[in-house]
Amino acid sequence: MKKCVIVPDSFKGTMSSVEVCDVISEKVRNLFPHCQICGIPIADGGEGTVDCFVRAIGGEKRNVRVQGPFGEEIESFYGVVKGDTAVVEMAAAAGLPLACGKRDPGKASTYGVGQLIAHAVRSGCRGVILGLGGSCTNDGGAGMAAALGTRFFRKDGSCFVPSGDSLEDVVSIDNSGAEKMLSGVEIQGMCDIENPMFGEKGAAYIFGPQKGADTEEIQVLDRNLRAFSEVIKRELGMDVSRIPGSGAAGAMGAGVCAFLGGSLVSGIELLLEVVNFDQMLQSCDLVITGEGKLDQQSFDGKVIAGVVRHARKFHVPVVAVAGYVEPDVRRALDAFGVSGALSVYDKRMNLEQILPTCKTDLGRRVEDLAYLQV
């Protein structure tokens, strides 16, 4: 083998995509000493997005103090690549781990995400790639917009920063401040889901439970998003509610479109484009991809689906390495365009059993590539 491209997602709960990429790269290098290895760790817009971009194409990571999800000051960061493009992962200022046991999506805010974007723009960035994933919020991106200059008003004329619980109090919006700040800046939201802003498949119903919302609160959050959507339509002339992905990250997808003048794009497609993946595939002998669990959803707009789609154009075989491969998927690998799949663990193993030796176990499994006919 002369050239191998390694494009893994994270093994959630055990290894980041950078760690997975490093383990696989080392083993392939040992197996094929003369092989040219191209490693591209992938993130879906949540935690690790900045590290993946900086690692894949070079750049720098900037530390900034911003407001956390409940108003506390926290140390956060964003990345700068290609000189003037900021990579912001909303999880760095409004992610679920930052809730610190206080899971309350009705009160959590994305204000700190807006502060990260503002810092990047004031520092000269003319493009922003915003990772939408891993949020603890449900504010429709209102907090983010407020930090960028958008003003929200109650019925009594007072200006305030809405949260998920108070979106229904918004009666008018002045977006001129954000429009001025972001003039000439291209905003792209990385989003690999198609959930709408509200409804049974919307932000509150689908993602609210994992953020700590009970049945009653989910209904309140959904109702508030509906009301907020109507105000956006009336005040800004945009119906963002049914845009595919508008429900991402507590409906921040809707906020990106409504207040930032941005667009929602496939995260995997954007990253593969930025790193010139198609060029890497030229004269390539093998692509190795993977994720924590390989199942039907893996081929439905996710990392592996994007990798396979591009590899097919160049007739490059793809092998997947996963923590666990579902049996029904294994039987259909050929139809998906995957030449083979390696499962690292037995499904019956729990996280406590896996964590201590996860890197070693992954490395040993990759050694089986020497015997896999592709």
Task: Give me a quick take on this structure.
The protein is α/β, with parallel strands linked by helices. 36% of the residues lie in helices and 20% in strands. The protein has 2 domains: 3-40 and 277-371, Rossmann fold; 49-267, Glycerate kinase, domain 2, CATH 3.90.1510.
Number of strands: 14
The CATH topology of the largest domain turns out to be Glycerate kinase, domain 2
Structural class: alpha/beta
Shape: globular
Query: What level of helicity do the residues show?
Result: 25-40%
CATH level 1 class label of the largest domain: Alpha Beta
Could you characterize the architecture of this molecule?
- Keywords: Kinase, Transferase.
- Belongs to the glycerate kinase type-1 family.
- One of its GO terms (molecular function) is glycerate kinase activity.
- This is Glycerate kinase.
- It is globular and about 70 Å long.
- It has helices spanning 17-31, 49-57, 91-94, 111-122, 142-147, 176-181, 203-207, 215-236, 248-259, 267-274, 277-281, 303-313, 327-330, 333-336, 351-354, 358-366, and strands at 3-8, 36-39, 60-67, 73-81, 85-89, 127-131, 151-153, 159-160, 172-174, 186-190, 263-265, 286-294, 318-325, 340-343.
- It contains 16 helices and 14 strands.
- The longest helix is centred in the middle third of the chain and has 22 residues, at 215-236.
- Helix 1 (17-31) packs across helix 16 (358-366).
- The N and C termini lie close together (11 Å).
- The protein is of the alpha/beta class.
- The protein has 2 domains: 3-40 and 277-371, Glycerate kinase, domain 1 (Rossmann fold, 3-Layer(aba) Sandwich), CATH 3.40.50.10350; 49-267, Glycerate kinase, domain 2, CATH 3.90.1510.10.
- A 6-stranded mixed sheet has the order 3-4-5-6-10-11, sandwiched between helices. The protein has a 5-stranded parallel sheet with strand order 2-1-12-13-14, sandwiched between helices.
